[in-house]
Amino acid sequence: MAKSSTQTFYGTKGNTRNQTHKTRRQLIQEFVKEWTGKGEIKEDANRQPFIDDLLRRVCGIEQPTQYIEYEKDVQVKADGKPTTRRIDGYIPSTKVMWEMKGSHVKDLNKQILQSGGDMLTPYEQAKRYANFLPQNEYPRWIVVSNFLEIDIHDMNKPLSEPKVIMLKDLATNYKALDFLVDTSAQQIIDEKKLSIDAGVLVSKIYHELSNAYSLHADLKDESIQKSLNMLIVRLVFLLYADDTGILGDENIFQKFIERQEPSNIRQILMQLFKVLNTPEDKRDPFLADDYKQFKYVNGGMFADENVIIPQFTDELKDLVVNEAGKGFNWANISPTIFGAVFESTLNPDTRR
């Protein structure tokens, strides 16, 4: 039986000791590279190494074999008689069930002949196993994978389509796997390291924004410098709000920006900032739904309409949407530590 144990997220113990200089994104990129292009990957020989590696490098679980139970027995009925089947993987602390197929199974929505003669999709197979588990072990999530993609089925939304993550896109979508980790029972986040990673992202945004401003303005101009700093504060706030849902649906800002051409982002940000500074009951009744979905932000963060916004480039959009948006979970940083890192990033004397 798998046991819950204290884990360190890219910390200083065990196998992760030599990885402390690497960001989570770098570790995930290494994971993707290692499991891509291997040709046919067989289920029996590779499912445990794959899941172990994913839990370790993608989720930061230092000892996966103590976290997940493999080959979990479940008694099901076949031809009216009890028979034993085995669940590929089951995480007790988060009630996650894994069903792995070999990479030759290209379509996870296609029914496959089962040992008992039934035709079931991998998800239907896992769901059948789940129905025979005790109530207190019924999965909250069912994950189906063929090493090329990961399909996440939320059992609280049984009629919804699964969230599909392709392995090649994992470095920008890994936040979708955070449900695998029991944050309440384990110390999995090294807050200082995570906050420094956030500071690195802020520095990258600062650099790209500086380049964008410099195309048409003097960076030594006080109004430009003030606008640069304020724009970063606003962008980071919106990225944090995306991951905590405090402005509405999760990732609404990321999706909002992702839909825009870079040449349009400057104009839509100017409009969005005005909307965020306006209470819902005082907004234009004909306001487009794209803007209406954002909640009002009090406190004056978006009150200054004199903030100058530069034209966005492809690189700046990609940084905000993918690396800082999809590729990082701002909700988990320590406000105290990050505050100091953030302040240092905006200070020209200490930015390096």
Report on the structure:
- It is a single chain.
- This protein has 352 residues and is α+β, with helices and mostly antiparallel strands.
- It folds into two domains: 14-180, tt1808, chain A, CATH 3.90.1570; 191-346, no CATH class.
- 40% of the residues lie in helices and 13% in strands.
- It has eleven helices and eight strands.
- The longest helix has 24 residues, at 191-214.
- It is elongated and about 80 Å long.
- The N and C termini lie far apart (48 Å).
- Mean pLDDT is 84; it is low at 1-21 and 185-189.
Quick recap of the structure?
40% of the residues lie in helices and 13% in strands. The chain has helices at residues 24-35, 43-58, 122-131, 170-173, 191-214, 222-244, 252-258, 262-276, 289-292, 314-326, 335-346, and strands at 69-78, 81-91, 96-100, 112-113, 119-120, 141-145, 149-154, 163-166.
The top-level CATH class of the largest domain is Alpha Beta
Count of the separate structural domains: 2
CATH topology of the largest domain: tt1808, chain A
Radius of gyration: 23 Å
What's the order of the H and E elements? HHEEEEEHEEEHHHHHHHH
Approximately how much beta-strand content do the residues carry? Answer: 5-15%
How many strands? 8
* Helix/strand/pairing category: alpha+beta
Salient structural properties:
elongated, 2 domains, 8 strands, 6-stranded mixed sheet, two-stranded antiparallel sheet, tt1808, chain A, disordered N terminus, alpha+beta, 352 residues
